[in-house]
Amino acid sequence: MSDKKKRKQGMLENVMRQFNNAADIMELNPNIRKILSITNNEIVVHFPVKMDDGNVEIFTGYRVQHNNSLGPYKGGLRYHPTVDIDAARALAMWMTWKTSLAGLPYGGAKGGIQLDPLKYSQSELERITRRFTYALGTNIGPEFDIPAPDVNTNPQIMAWILDTFMSTKAPSDRSANMHVVTGKPIGTGGSEGRDRATGFGVFLNIKFWAAHNQVNLKGKKFIVQGFGNVGYWASYFMQEEGALMVGVQDAYGSLANKEGISVTDLFAHSRTNRGSILGYTKANEINKEDFFALDCDICIPSALGNQITLKNVGGIKAKLIAEGANGPTDVEAERILLDREIEIIPDILCNSGGVICSYFEWLQNRNGEIWTLDEVLEKLQRKLFDSFNRVLKTAQEYKVDLRTSAFIIAIKRLEDTYVQRGVFP
Length: 425
Ligand SMILES: NC(=O)C1=CN([C@@H]2O[C@H](COP(=O)(O)OP(=O)(O)OC[C@H]3O[C@@H](n4cnc5c(N)ncnc54)[C@H](O)[C@@H]3O)[C@@H](O)[C@H]2O)C=CC1
Ligand SMILES: O=C(O)CCC(=O)C(=O)O
What we know:
This protein is of the alpha/beta class. The chain contains 13 helices and twelve strands. The longest helix has 26 residues, at 373-398. The chain starts with a helix and ends in a 5-residue tail after the last helix. The structure holds 1,4-dihydronicotinamide adenine dinucleotide and 2-oxoglutaric acid. 2-oxoglutaric acid binds at residues 74-76, 98, 148, 150, 182-183, 326, 351, 354-355, 358.
């Protein structure tokens, strides 16, 4: 079996093991366990797109809707070669736990297209996105399933989805569909703060953890994997707090500097370098395999799933792993980290700032409101503080790690709704 295949299977296996572990501890009703173990709908679409050279290419797109018992399906769209049905299933399940933990009126979904966006021009990406939106048809909708950005998708792509979706509606209904996607550009119904919300949330969780453990973040060393939306903003706020980025890795390479790397300077470099950190002269290029073993206090994986595994866990020096990415730590590696008393702020808590801010955007669109950046960030901070404290309290109550605690809270909310409806007393 190829490494690529193993990685994809790993994500689904990981999320199921995380779920079953929490379900065992909380003694989840077996009927509800059955329901939550499967995905409600799995949409796979094949669609043709004309390329710049006049040839037609066929693309495969996915949208997996895991559960909507708490509200409309919600979750991002990823454009990446590793997107397939198992990846979409795993990521959709994580969305259900994440929205439930955050107390949002949403379920969970995820999807995307299996492609490498670097291989396509901007106008090809626009046509691919518009065709994908047509192919999804009524499988998405502002009160049914609301996509958002994820790896290699961005506000521009959300604007194309919105525009295409609206074009299928009668003119009188178009503005009522503004909330079919979130993470839109601000001029097209997007919310202030959605750009930084996930990374800001990662930073806030680290800050709450530091306050709880009487740790001062000033001068603390951190490494970040992924220097995209989440990795950049998390690093930006860490640097603002006085912490030092000593290592960074993206899809193109890995950099280290014991004295610290300027987050804003590196970002400016990557913007003029097709998003790549390579070629930055104020840090040393290191081997990809040595990245997680860099000497640091905090590690912020913010790229893909299954990055911290049995292969590299032994080298980790950080005392805290703050999961910006979805599913970056596999179950076996996590066991070793916990045995070594390395704490993990789990993805469904740590990166939940993004979907919380998406909810704010959806509310603003629905209610015809426009909130200021300060308002958004303040509301986000309050919500995340509440989630963090609930996770801490439940961890103490059940004597479990933070991930298991976050899962217990998320699953309990779902269990309650099924029981209250009388479906499974
Ligand atoms: N964008 C959002 O609001 C949210 C994103 N997430 C998760 O955060 C993670 C990152 O997402 P974004 O920052 O939005 O994506 P992005 O596309 O903006 O950035 C991804 C970054 O990861 C790097 N990368 C890709 N493959 C890599 C590899 N094999 N090794 C090292 N680096 C690699 C890329 O070069 C890029 O710097 C994903 O797991 C995503 O699901 C979670 C919650 C919300
Ligand atoms: O903003 C959203 O709706 C979802 C973002 C996302 O895909 C995630 O939290 O993993």
